[in-house]
Amino acid sequence: MNLEQAPEQPELRTPRLSQKHTNRLTIIGIILTVAGIALFAYFVYSVGVGEIVNNISRFGVDGFAIILALYFLRICMRSAAWTLSVYEPYFLKMKDAIPAVIIGEAMSNMIPLGILVSGTAKAVAVRKRIPLVVGLSSVATENLFYSFTTSLFLIGGAFTLLRAFTLDDGWVWTIDVLIAAIIFVLLFLVLLVIRQWHFASETCEWLYNKGIATGVLEHTRLQVRLFENFIYGFYRRYPKRFLPICLIEATFHLLGILEVWFILERISSANLLSAFLLESVSRLITIVFKLIPFVIGVDEAGAQFIAETVAMTAGIGVTLALIRKGRILFWTAIGLLLIIKRGLSVRMMSKIDT
Domain range for residue 85? Predict the structure, then answer.
């Protein structure tokens, strides 16, 4: 398939999970959510409601308003990176991208399977501005850049944690394995794009020719090929956009570090090293435990672990996670209002056809 022919391919139908797989993921998500709520309750109980309330009171309403503004800037960074990932002759304005990103984040946070529909939600939200296939492919392209910068960010956080603090041998081994795994995935993705390996579509084609899941793969294998061509075509046509997009994605992470530093400075004391480690662990937890709505429980666990490692109290770490969760709830509510206003739904996101 020629790269230049990609936009002229037959209409795109968003790939769907089978009902069986969806039900399994839903059950897993519910179990993890219940476990997360139990873990959340445990940490609040162990730290003490009084200490948490006192820390939040010191942070103040004005402090909360500032982190809401900081997160809006982070949304703007993801939106800007997305607008640069759109193929010409199509283009996406920031005023359209920002609400779409808020909607996608809301979908991702609210439900156990949100991560499966968040990208589609963004594309659907702007389908009156750009064709759905262009929206989906540009979201996938932006996610690749985000994954690249996030991988570097996680490697930096893990390496710093190992070198700056004394950890148990079990944690050292676990973090070493994590670093090696991230580096492997990162190198694989870089080679995938540079060498333009049609790994996913060739796998789908092989399964289809073997008579495996032919009903699903009848259209999906062509759609996967189309996505690959859009992404690889972007690499060939817009190499000068790579550095700006990476810098924008890096700014997203820097703003996250600034947010953590600001919260810690208001409720206790802080330094940039602690803020960097707390944000990197938070980002890792968000990725690994995305099936749990609002990463409830596990976010508090990660924050407490790092807080104790850098000689802070457990209460500071849990309070940090709770304040940031409040920020997530606020922007999720804004996303929900946008979803309702535009007449969108989870069913629509998962079954949309163009």
Answer: 17-351
Q: Is 2 inside any structural domain?
A: no
Residue pLDDT tens, the chain, 354 long: 333 343 443 444 444 545 555 566 667 667 767 777 777 777 777 777 888 888 888 898 999 999 999 999 999 999 999 999 998 888 999 999 999 999 998 888 877 666 667 888 898 899 889 988 888 889 988 988 998 899 899 899 888 888 877 778 887 888 888 888 888 888 887 887 777 777 778 888 888 787 887 776 777 777 777 777 777 777 788 888 989 999 999 999 999 999 999 998 888 877 888 889 888 888 887 776 666 666 676 777 777 777 777 667 777 888 888 898 889 999 999 998 998 888 776 666 655 543
Distance of alpha carbon 78 from alpha carbon 276, whole angstroms: 20
Answer whether residue 327 is part of any domain: yes
Identify whether 93 is part of a domain: yes
pTM of the predicted model as reported, rounded to 2 decimal places? 0.80
Q: Structural domain tally of the chain?
A: 1
Position 240 in a domain: yes
